[in-house]
Amino acid sequence: MDAFVTHTGTAAPLRRSNVDTDQIIPAEFLKRITRHGFEDALFYSWRQDPSFVLNQSEYAGASILVAGPDFGTGSSREHAVWALQDFGFKVVLSSRFADIFRGNSGKAGLLTALVDQQVVESLWEMIEADATTQVKVDLEAQTVAAGDLTAPFEVDPYVRWRLLEGLDDIGITLQRVDTIEVFETSRPAFAPTTLG
Amino acid sequence: MGKTLAEKVWEAHVVRRAEGEPDLLYIDLHLVHEVTSPQAFDGLRTAGRVVRRPDLTIATEDHNIPTVDVDKPIADPVSRAQVEALRKNCAEFGVPLYSLGHAEQGIVHVVGPQLGLTQPGMTVVCGDSHTSTHGAFGALAFGIGTSEVEHVLATQTLPLKPFKTMAITVNGPLPEGVTAKDLILAVIARIGTGGGQGYVLEYRGEGVRGLSMEGRMTLCNMSIEAGARAGMVAPDEITFAYLEGRDHAPQGEQWDTAVDYWRSLTTDADATFDAEVVIEASELSPFVTWGTNPGQGLPLSASVPSPDDAVDEVDRVAIERALEYMDLTPGMPLREVNIDTVFLGSCTNGRIEDLRAAAEILRGRRIADSVRMLVVPGSARVRLQAESEGLDQVFLDAGAEWRGAGCSMCLAMNPDKLTPGERSASTSNRNFEGRQGPGGRTHLVSPQVAAATAITGHLTSPADLVNA
């Protein structure tokens, strides 16, 4: 995973609440067995509507998505994170994220920065007035800045550390394999196995 | 100070704890299906890693498979490739797999409990958000993403921050005609789709203790729709009676040892929850959704709400958008909403008790000419059981379709889909836009309401049939 320290780019306003992962990527596209190439599937149904924000030329190339509350609810599909990344997003800003989506993002290297709804509203106004507004997300300082606005965001400290370092979770855990082996000797004898 | 059920199960699985780091938690059971696993197995292969505990891992085919012509090759080449990838991966990494055609194949959350693999006090994960189902046994069970699937395959552990705990206390017994589905839809409407974020919900009180294991699974299944990671019910005699004698349940002396331990898995009297919600069971009645998220639900006796009922601007926009998508007018009685398709099945309501309840209502009756009804058992075992009880014939005589086991129209990854504008009454768990097919409109209901609705062609409770 690539390290994430700061990111500066343009942002797209998604003025919707409760954006579930079925909207981010419909189930039809989950049949693929690859890890990349989901950009065509992102918000597939909504993109059929020419007026949808991501169909507006001024937001082409946006790398920060500013969304309404409860972003990423529903299905655990990590494909939702991959589709956002494949489309070019590095950061999603919202005042509330669903837990599984947020966890998946942290694993895959997409930053989900939790900000006050007031910050979301200010950013919406700013980027709707001028789509070329540069938004800077600084993970070291935990701030998002655009125009006159500088606001703090929340991120889990451990996820922040892993993203800053670009570390792979499995590699970290496998360093503890001795501890796992010790734990396994203490499991109850009645615990089931899946073998015949 | 005492501990909650969730905290007890958590503490029993901590492999490593260090300041400033998440706990490393041991996973007792990892359920795998075709959709969220191929990239995880690829990751293992690329890194030259193995599956640490194939004996604690089990796979089945459910999301993508057809429910008709199950003896023929899967017609959709993309679906077929994904199912074949699972078969190849399971063979290569030594993971036991129940394939289409096997008597134990079915929806992953129906298969685990039915085999007796889901037991009290365990940690259970799966690359599927409805893993919360298994919490009905007093297990800590939650959905994970594909990166985490790979992590569990490689290490049998997950690094996790402790969840907060929320008690959902249901005072009094559920009234006649009110089911676990009605209860959970009412809970979600009350706390919202984000109300459970960061929490494990523990369902307690007389209204929960009176539920069968099937009902408890329905309840825990939809915890995720309230935003919670997991739902739990403390194990009791009903749990032990369900488990005893199942294929993977402990036997002989081990059974006694296990039950002794399981009896300790209750929230201590002096434990505190981070939050509590109290539901008076006497106030509940059959519940349905009208909108495009599971929190947009009301009693069947209510009318379609208006954007003017919104609590704030965000809510107002959400109601407006939902009404437009659902093509509903404020003030219209929900009982007058006409339905084209009835779907009975899913990990929420595809178990034998659900099929029995619906069949009881349909016995000797016909579904409306304007309605198609799909009955999709949650597993091949449920299908066989239903057939041995003659339920298949009840459904067929009523004019419904009797299908093979799988996720089917719950998420429309297989050919079972709504067409644009088509409206369903569905016993599944999500009424998101396009969930059951692009442009499809979904009303979430209990199996009983589904059956009664199939008969009249509009949203109906069984009691309405008697009164009519």
Architecture overview:
- The complex is a heterodimer of chains A (196) and B (468).
- In chain A, 31% of the residues lie in helices and 16% in strands.
- Chain A has 196 residues and is of the alpha/beta class.
- In chain A, strands 1-6-7-8 form a 4-stranded antiparallel beta sheet, covered by helices on one side. A 4-stranded parallel beta sheet of chain A has the order 2-3-4-5.
- Chain A is globular, with a radius of gyration of 19 Å.
- Chain A starts with 5 loop residues before the first strand and ends in an 11-residue tail after the last helix.
- Chain B is built from 17 helices and 19 strands.
- In chain B, helix 6 (180-191) links the parallel strand 9 and strand 10 (199-204).
- At the A-B interface, helix 3, helix 6 and helix 7 of A face helix 2, helix 3, helix 5, helix 10 and helix 11 of B.
Summarize this, please?
The complex is a heterodimer of chains A (196) and B (468). Chain A has 196 residues and is α/β, with parallel strands linked by helices.
Name the descriptors.
heterodimer; A: 196 residues; alpha/beta; four-stranded antiparallel sheet; four-stranded parallel sheet; globular; B: 468 residues; five-stranded parallel sheet; 17 helices
Oligomer: heterodimer
- Reading side by side through the largest sheet of chain A, how are the strands ordered? 1-6-7-8
Distance between the termini of chain B: 55 Å
The radius of gyration over CA of chain A amounts to 19 Å
* Tally of alpha and pi helices of chain A: 7
- The DSSP helix count of chain B reads 17
Question: Average pLDDT across residues of chain B?
Answer: 97
Q: What general form of chain B does the structure show?
A: globular
Report the strand count of chain A.
Answer: 8
Major beta sheet summary of chain A: 4 strands, antiparallel
Tell me about the largest β-sheet of chain B: 5 strands, parallel
